[in-house]
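Invent a record, attention on tokens:
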Amino acid sequence: MMHNYPVGRLPRQLVRHLITVRPGHTLAALLFGLGTATTPTLAQGTFAAPAYYNSSGVSPIGITAGDLNGDGRADIVLNNFNSSTAGVGVLLNAVAPAAAGTFPASATTYNSGGSNSAGSAIGDVNGDGRPDIVAGNINDNTVGVLLNPGNGTFPSAAITYSTGGAGPVNVSLGDVNGDGRLDIVAAHQNGGTVGVLLNSATTPGTFGAAVQYTAGNQVYGVRLGDVNGDGRLDIVTSNFQSANVSVLLNSATTPGTFGAATSYLSGGSGPLGMVLGDVNGDGRLDIVVNHQASSLFGVLLNSATTPGTFGAVTTYNNGGFGEGVAVGDVSGDGRLDIVVSRNSTGTAGVFVNSGTGTFPTQTNYATGGGLNARVVLVDVNNDGLLDIAVSDFTNARIAVLRNTSTIAAPALSSINPTNGPVGTSVTLTGTNLLNASAVNFTGAAATNFTVVNATTITALVPAGATTGNVTVTTPGGTSNGVAFAVNPTVVISSTAGASGSTTGTSPIPFTITFSQSVTGFVAGAVSVTNGAVTSGSFSGSGTTYSFTVTPTTPGTPTTVSVPANVAITAAGTSNVASAAPYSIQYNAPVTATTWTGAVSSNWYANGNWTNSMPGRRIDARIPAGVPNFPVVPNGTAYAKNLTLASGATLTQSGGTLELRGDFDNSGTFVATGGTVSLRDSLNRQLIGGTSRTTLWNLTVGASGASLNGELEIQRVLTLNGDLSTASLGLTLLSNAGGTAMVVNSGGAIGGPATVQRYIDPSLNAGLGYRH
């Protein structure tokens, strides 16, 4: 199950899953672990003593996290401020699941493309599905891009781009112009601007010239998020010298360009670290900012009436001068808590959200001394708990404090409704339901469910579910079960055709399939219009039943439906009604068609017949008085019985006229070519009528034929079966054009026949016998 949301515009139940990173990092890179368990229900966030990992450089400041090598575990990226050739350090998470959450003793370092690298952002800038690293280089006024080859290793040197300003201390990644590619925004600590570098539309992973926007005095932190709810990423900065934060709204008409900055007091001196998050649960991003020159951090709530504007700051004593700040749900109540790093005491402070966006409770954890620069919250060991990682500027290392909180087990108190078919939406109520990884019905797991809050989950009853208990699984365990009765559904089908179609089959076959085994379903429970269940045709048991329906009136739809509560499962649940009546129209087969000649003399034109062109099972009648009489010039024309009425004419100049029945000729049959073929494989056929019938060629099938009138053959009589002439007369014609002959192929003539022999008058001028 997956839901997609614009970056920086997440519903409350998802905001708590953010991996929180240092100021200047884009929200796009914070979305590590969404869709997997990351935030259980806790009594209180508690953390173990730190584990240390060497930065392999000097003076690490920046720290962020992301899965760089695609193994499903969060890796750590840091910035070594005073290392000109090792500006970026990478600590890959342990490969073995048992060791998850541990890292190599020392980071692998990469050249950031400049010196004094203080911050990085992680994101797929070239669209290859692998997270890349973008680092700011303060002394060089550049950002360095390290493209990920896929295994978490990086090129020896970064590709650099000018940020257009002085001292890019922090960077953020986000799609600011809505083209689907991550762009770069850099904060300039030695000036008052942010630089925006748009990703290339033609060569993703390369960037255009930076565009500068004024933000404040000594811009330090930079974040991207949709603060006004218009679906576009805005820029928020912390401004060290001017002691404020600034908001630059993305243009509504030209996305990727930004309006003038609006500034708000940050509540202290020297604001550095800054993050965005919905701390009061109203669906709008708020601002949290930490201060280096005062022991305060400030919270600015987004306006409930004018999103994108902020009220007066509320400050909290953070217990020492600080730089880093992160937000994440470490207490498991579904609300974002605040974690600060202190560079004066070597500790990290955890401030638990009260539920209203205030932070009255503080717990401090030792990080091992030294000047703590930045902090990130990330689940390093995939246990569903957010851990703390801080960069130790003084001791050239990072400290990782694992969350050791006890996870409370989920408990269910009710489900509503208590019964329904597959696909029913149900609401589960209970406690400790946050971070549910599964909702299990008896027989099947729900593939579509939503954790609304700590006490509510909505789910759709999955295919395969049967009556029984429903449970919820979280990192705290599996809940008790609440009873849900699954009503069987009904599917109607027919081999005669899809619902809404027509058929020539009668009685019409139907199959009823229940989603669960049922009893009590009988023929009388089936609802039928324009027909009735055929006596003796009903059979079946369990999930499948079959029967036929005899239609009452051909040409009118026959419908079949199954009402609710006519079958019952072993658990005592009754079926729901079929979704809609199954409708098939029985059309009696066409047995005869009459020539109209309305269109032309073409035998093969459907418009010349009353019921379309005749076929092997369809009789053809040709009446007198039509505007055009038929002609068979080529191809094969079919009919069962062919009747040529008095005054009517049928012409055959070629092709084959194949008859599966009798040929009754009371009109005129004009044959100048072609063959009449008698092809009934079971019965003798009659040929003739009140008019003399003259054919060009005649083929008699194996079943034989009998004359029913005078017959003349002009060229070839082929006998695959006997031809009985009785006393009606068969004449084999002879003229100047040719003489008829008989081909015996298993048949013979039975009865009298006249054989003509033409005598050329020019050679035999006198009187004499000519026939």
DSSP finds one helix and 67 strands in the chain. The domain at 19-401 is CATH 2.130.10.10 (Methylamine Dehydrogenase; Chain H). The radius of gyration is 44 Å. The chain has a mean pLDDT of 90.
